[in-house]
Write a structure and sequence with these properties.
heterodimer, A: 182 residues, alpha+beta, 8 helices, 4 strands, globular, B: 718 residues, alpha/beta, five-stranded parallel β-sheet, 25 helices, 17 strands
């Protein structure tokens, strides 16, 4: 897992709960806490941190990851505004993931294992997204989608009829977007 | 969970842990940064290596491309030289062959040779354009001239397919411009040829419009519209790309390299314009291009406006497009134009106008019309309208000109215009019809190149004295053959040296000069000739297998007047020679012929066509003039000769001067030339009486001329 994810997590946690909580999570999970955006770190470190947070809050790990993804997206927009400014809506933005955003991510962070998604437009405001990755972080993807909807002033309703955590081969997320105002 | 408000020691411990963590982060970040910097450095090195390789490859490619261009130019030279022989000899043999099958075979050889030549030229053109090696001329050009040229070269084919052709230039288009005539014509010719090629029936219309104009240039739009097979919209864009034709079966039916339109596009772009096409399958196409041309500082020297001021013209044609075009051609002039769609309607118009006291001055009649044709219409008009208010009749024909002239002459119609009608041919004829004569003096002679048939050049070329210079005997033979067929008298020289010597002895109207010759090449020979007093203006036309523009410019800079590329197409040869030897009158001041040389033996005694040219085509007038000439000179020869023996050279010179003028009007060219020669000799600073031999020659020519004229008068009288 690339360091940028850990840095985002650190930022999100400190912003929401303060530095002490981050210290505690590091201590509890045994993670090193020395993250730089260009470095790569073991996936287990991230999962350990999530598990520690889950334990401390009593919430499922998936919910923690979703929460993190949603909070992380606005920070990504600050860091990489170019990917966002050419779109007005969430769906066209998400559709650039495979062709534009992830290839650029791989250039910026050599060794990054950004996933490829399968897309299907199932309606004017609806997008089916298939996720397949050894990391099985569909919850993080779901949070990032919510975060993207927030950025574009929309609201995402996501159903997940298939999930690798439930023994399926891949995760399928059916995302419907509405204007946040309505 | 830790609370921030606890024991300060715990708090310090916490902070120390965070500090240690941040130090580790910093250290790791530095390591990463250093690795990344090294990485970056290596990549830059790699890029630099690639850049060097690329620039070497680029230079290599450029060298290869230059070599390719040079090779193409050389190959084209090598191919053109044998083609000269194939095309020229096929043509000559064809003209002389009796057996129709052999003629047919030879005509196929001739055509195939021309086709091959077209391909070679196309490939060379395209490669030069791609290498950006084509230099455009910026010389005075007349749009009408460009249209004439295109019309000349396409009329025969259009006629044979029975197609109407119409040329029109919007009145706001400036007529005197600067640009590259050859390239402009090339693009237009390509469009028009294509239009004819792909149109089985109907018409081909060429329009020139003013797209925009600024202080010193105009953007003109040339469009060629046909009623042919059309092109599917999805194929239109491909047409202008090299090597792409609509499909291979088309290539087989219609021929062509597929390079023409690609060349057109690049040429138009070089001329600051663009190309495009619209089309509808089965209905026809419009191909257009734009070109930027500079405004010429020279104003038109001659305006037919005064001649035409206030004239009333009736245009009669059953084809509405033809009516519109002809009316349009006349719109810049101060004439009143009315139209009629049939012979009967025309007759009614003319009669009504006569009765209203506003008779038409000119009737422009299409020859072939249903029911009452042009000639029948003219007859009807003559029957119904008194001679005094009978309009002059101009017959317009899309069919064989000779056929039309014959039929028209029988009906007393003097002026026949061939379709496609261009502004200058129309205005020339109109002026001639209303004023009963050719353009006022000072005008350049009409370009004989307008007539398509080779035989049409015979008048323009008969009696021209041509020196052909080439070191290859076969080339000399071909050119001699071509020129003699057209009535020229030809001498040959096989080296630059000999050419200079012969020219110094005088007696030529024009020199055709090969460029590459041993010892003294064509350029040096030309420079030598132009340095010779009296020969400064003797036209020298280079004939070269070299097709490179830069070289042509170099030739021109050295004093060569025109350049023809081998193999020389007969009609191009005739047109070029005719252009450089206009008129038959020799102005002593500019005569390139050295004074001492008698060189009059080959000019015709009596050139009827030539005379008719001066007399507005009026045969009756010719007979009257001939009578007057005979009467006034019958008893004049002896006294003139007496003056010479009495050494009254001045009076004698005046006599010869008068004789020169009057004989020239009658087309008695041999007499004209001899009189001019005598006049010149008598006016020379240290003039003495002409030699006895010269006087005998004069008496003989005078006697022969009188005899021929008498015969003509008698024939007309019976």
């Amino acid at each position: 897992m690339k360091g940028i994810i850990f840095i985002l997590l650190e930022k999100v946690v400190i912003e929401a709960h303060g530095e002490g909580v981050w210290d505690a999570l590091l201590e509890k999970s045994g993670a090193s806490g020395t993250y730089t955006s260009l470095g790569s770190y073991r996936d287990e470190e991230l999962l350990g941190l999530v598990a520690a947070a889950s334990e401390a809050t009593g919430r499922p790990q998936g919910e923690i990851l979703t929460w993190f993804g949603r909070k992380a997206m606005p920070l990504l927009r600050e860091r990489y505004p170019d990917f966002f400014t050419r779109h007005q809506q969430t769906i066209p933005f998400i559709l650039t993931l495979n062709e534009i955003i992830h290839p650029e991510v791989r250039k910026l962070y050599p060794g990054a294992e950004a996933p490829d998604f399968g897309f299907r437009r199932s309606g004017p405001n609806e997008l089916e997204l298939e996720y397949r990755s050894k990391k099985k972080m569909c919850a993080l993807a779901e949070g990032l989608i919510h975060g993207a909807a927030d950025v574009f002033g929309e609201k995402a309703v996501i159903e997940q009829p298939r999930c690798m955590h439930r023994g399926d081969e891949s995760c399928l997320m059916v995302c419907r977007f509405e204007s946040a105002a309505s | 969970m830790t609370s921030e408000g606890e024991d300060p020691r715990v708090r310090i411990q916490q902070l120390e842990q965070r500090l240690a963590r941040q130090r580790r982060v910093l250290e790791e970040a530095e390591n990463i940064a250093e690795r990344a910097t090294r990485d970056l450095y290596e990549r830059i090195q790699e890029l630099e290596r690639i850049r060097v390789q690329l620039s070497e490859a680029k230079e290599q490619a450029e060298r290869a491309s230059q070599a390719k261009s040079a090779f193409l130019a050389n190959m084209s030279h090598e191919i053109r030289t044998p083609l000269t022989a194939i095309i020229g000899l096929a043509y000559l043999t064809m003209r002389r062959a009796e057996d129709p099958r052999i003629r047919k075979n030879l005509s196929v050889i001739h055509e195939s040779g021309n086709h091959l030549l077209g391909l070679v030229s196309d490939i060379l053109d395209l490669s030069k354009l791609e290498a950006d090696k084509i230099m455009l001329d910026d010389v005075d050009l007349a749009i009408d001239g460009v249209l004439e040229r295109v019309s000349t070269m396409t009329a025969a084919r259009a006629q044979s397919q029975g197609l109407e052709m119409a040329f029109s230039v919007a009145p706001e288009v400036p007529r005197q411009l600067r640009g590259d005539t050859v390239r402009l014509s090339q693009v237009l010719l390509n469009y028009v040829s294509n239009a004819i090629k792909f149109t089985e029936r109907g018409e081909v219309t060429v329009r020139v419009d003013l797209e925009s104009q600024d202080a010193d240039s105009v953007l003109l739009r040339f469009s060629v519209t046909d009623t042919g097979i059309g092109v599917a919209p999805e194929h239109l864009g491909r047409l202008f790309r090299p090597f792409e034709q609509i499909d291979n079966s088309d290539t087989r039916v219609h021929g062509g390299s597929g390079l023409g339109l690609a060349i057109c596009r690049r040429l138009a772009e070089r001329m600051g314009g663009a190309v495009g096409a619209t089309s509808e399958v089965g209905r026809g196409s419009t191909f257009w291009f734009t070109a930027r041309l500079h405004l010429s500082l020279r104003t038109a020297e001659f305006s037919p406006r005064q001649e035409l001021e206030g004239r009333r013209v009736l245009v009669v044609d059953d084809n509405p497009t033809a009516r519109t075009v002809i009316s349009g051609l006349l719109s810049p002039f101060p004439v009143t134009v009315e139209t009629a769609a049939s012979g009967a309607e025309a007759v009614a118009h003319v009669v009504a106008a006569h009765q209203a006291g506003q008779p038409f001055h000119v009737l422009l009649l299409d020859w072939r019309m249903p029911e009452l044709d042009g000639i029948a219409t003219a007859r009807r008009v003559r029957e119904l309208v008194p001679h005094s208010s009978c309009p002059a009749v101009l017959l317009i024909t899309a069919h064989g000109r000779e056929e039309a002239i014959g039929a028209a002459a029988e009906a007393g119609i003097e002026v026949v215009i061939s379709k496609p009608v261009t502004e200058s041919s129309l205005v020339d004829s109109l002026v001639r019809a209303v004023s009963g004569r050719e353009h006022p003096a000072g005008q350049p002679a009409r370009d004989p190149a307008r007539s398509a048939g080779v035989d049409d050049f015979t008048d323009a070329l008969r009696g021209r004295r041509v020196l052909v210079v080439d070191d290859v005997p076969m080339n000399l033979e071909i050119l001699r053959g071509l020129l003699e067929v057209a009535g020229c008298s030809v001498e040959t020289a096989d080296s630059g040296m000999e050419a200079v010597e012969r020219v110094r002895r005088g007696g030529f109207d024009v020199v055709l000069m090969d460029i590459q010759m041993p010892v003294m090449d064509g350029v040096s020979a030309t420079q030598e000739i132009k340095r010779t007093p009296g020969c400064e203006r003797l036209p020298v036309i280079a004939i070269t297998a070299n097709v490179l523009e830069q070289d042509h410019q170099r030739y021109r800079a050295s004093g060569i007047d025109d350049v023809l590329c081998k193999p020389v197409e007969p009609s191009m040869l005739y047109a070029t020679v005719a252009r450089h030897t206009p008129g038959v009158r020799r102005d002593p001041g500019t005569d390139p012929v050295a004074p001492a040389e008698p060189a009059v033996t080959l000019a015709p005694l009596f050139d009827v066509e030539n005379a008719l040219g001066f007399l507005g085509g009026n045969r009756e007038l010719l007979v009257r003039t001939a009578r007057m000439f005979i009467a006034s000179n019958e008893h004049d020869v002896e006294p003139t000769l007496a003056l010479l023996t009495a050494a009254d050279l001045k009076t004698a010179a005046r006599r010869f001067h008068r004789l020169k003028g009057s004989s020239a009007m009658l087309g008695c060219r041999r007499l004209t030339e001899l009189s001019a020669l005598l006049e010149r000799e008598l006016k020379a600073p240290e003039a003495k009486a002409p030699s006895a031999e010269r006087l005998r020659e004069f008496s003989a020519v005078m006697g022969q001329t009188m005899a021929v004229l008498r015969k003509h008068v008698e024939a007309a009288g019976t």
